[in-house]
């Protein structure tokens, strides 16, 4: 791919335990990407959020990617792992060496551990050694829409910031954060070019993106859609319609993500 105009840093592929998603396969995802002019997406395995053994979901997604023509040029697999699950270090190695994963995606709230627990710290250090950014998910869905028997609170921002402080050598991406949470994270990590925020959950006010850019600059913000949980047009339009420069929009849509992943834009 010669030019990457839109790189979605927060996509998911596979079925969700609590409601039917119309887009569940790699082929479905690529069709949706085509519909919304998304050139490249970093995607994790959705079932890994609720599987007891996350790595089984990584294996399923890797098999789907391998079986789908053209997928290797459109989708970067993100490794969904639970640091406290037995054998996680080996699963991480397999994700990178066997599946070509280039992002580590963590769900502390769903998997039930503190961000700064020793196993989590060690996994993030392993990611830093391999040059892999660590994506910490604050929430998957609005807490008001959770299944009544599985109410999962958001990952506390303070816990995430403690992990960032403990592992300064790692690159971090905050995912699923509201506008206030995004602003607080960026403020707390000022001066850290390798600490970024993907914008899929920055919903309101309508001017939230331009307000964050005005306050924190545009070089640490990433386009993320959270497809298929959310229609991609939502994230696209809140950047496209923001009162920021074309150069800033280009940075958000793909430039910052390409820099983080070491890709040619």
Domains (count): 1
What is the fold named in CATH at topology level?
TIM Barrel
Mean pLDDT score, rounded? 95
Gap between N and C termini? 9 Å
- The CATH superfamily label reads Metal-dependent hydrolases
Uncertain residue ranges: none
Gyration radius (Cα, Å) is 17 Å
Q: Mind telling me which CATH architecture this is?
A: Alpha-Beta Barrel
**Dominant shape:** globular
Strand order of the largest sheet: 1-2-3-4-5-6-7-8
The total strand number stands at: 8
Structural class: alpha/beta
Please indicate the percent range of residues in DSSP E strands (runs of 2 or more).
5-15%
CATH class: Alpha Beta
* Biggest sheet character: 8 strands, parallel
- Percentage of residues assigned to helices: 25-40%
The number of helices is 10
H/E element order = EHEHEHEHHEHEHEHEHH
SSE layout and pairings?
Blueprint: E1 7-13, H1 26-35, E2 40-45, H2 54-67, E3 75-80, H3 88-97, E4 103-106, H4 108-111, H5 118-129, E5 134-137, H6 157-166, E6 172-175, H7 179-188, E7 195-198, H8 208-216, E8 221-222, H9 232-240, H10 246-261
Parallel strand pairs: 1-2, 2-3, 3-4, 4-5, 5-6, 6-7, 7-8
Helix pairs in contact: 7-8
Key terms for this structure?
alpha/beta, 8 strands, 8-stranded parallel beta sheet, 265 residues, TIM Barrel, 14% strand
Describe the overall structure.
- By secondary structure, the protein is of the alpha/beta class.
- It has one domain (7-261): TIM Barrel.
- The protein has ten helices and eight strands.
- It has an eight-stranded parallel beta sheet with strand order 1-2-3-4-5-6-7-8, with helices on both faces.
- Helix 7 (179-188) packs parallel to helix 8.
- The longest helix has 16 residues, at 246-261.
């Amino acid at each position: 791919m010669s030019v990457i105009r839109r790189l979605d840093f927060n996509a998911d592929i596979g079925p969700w335990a609590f409601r039917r998603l119309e887009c569940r396969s790699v082929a479905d995802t690529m069709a949706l990407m085509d519909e919304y002019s998304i050139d490249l997406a970093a995607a994790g395995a959705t079932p890994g959020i609720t599987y007891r053994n996350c790595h089984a979901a990584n294996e399923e997604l890797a098999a789907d990617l391998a079986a789908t023509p053209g997928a290797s040029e459109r989708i970067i697999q993100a490794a969904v792992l639970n640091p406290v699950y037995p054998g996680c270090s080996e699963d991480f190695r397999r994700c990178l060496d066997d599946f070509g994963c280039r992002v580590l995606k963590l769900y502390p709230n769903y998997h039930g551990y503190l961000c700064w627990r020793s196993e989590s710290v060690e996994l993030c250090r392993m990611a830093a050694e391999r040059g892999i950014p660590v994506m910490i998910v604050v929430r998957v869905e609005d807490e008001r829409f959770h299944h009544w028997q599985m109410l999962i609170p958001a990952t506390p921002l303070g816990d995430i910031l403690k992990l960032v402080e403990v592992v300064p050598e790692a690159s971090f991406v905050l995912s699923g954060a509201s506008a206030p949470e995004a602003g607080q994270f960026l403020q707390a990590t000022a001066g850290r070019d390798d600490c970024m925020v993907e914008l899929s959950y920055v919903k309101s006010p309508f001017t939230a993106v331009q307000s964050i850019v005005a306050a924190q600059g545009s070089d640490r913000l990433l386009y993320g859609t959270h497809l298929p949980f959310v229609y991609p047009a939502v994230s696209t339009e809140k950047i496209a319609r923001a009162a920021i420069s074309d150069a800033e929009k280009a940075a958000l849509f793909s430039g910052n993500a390409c820099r983080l992943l070491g890709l040619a834009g």
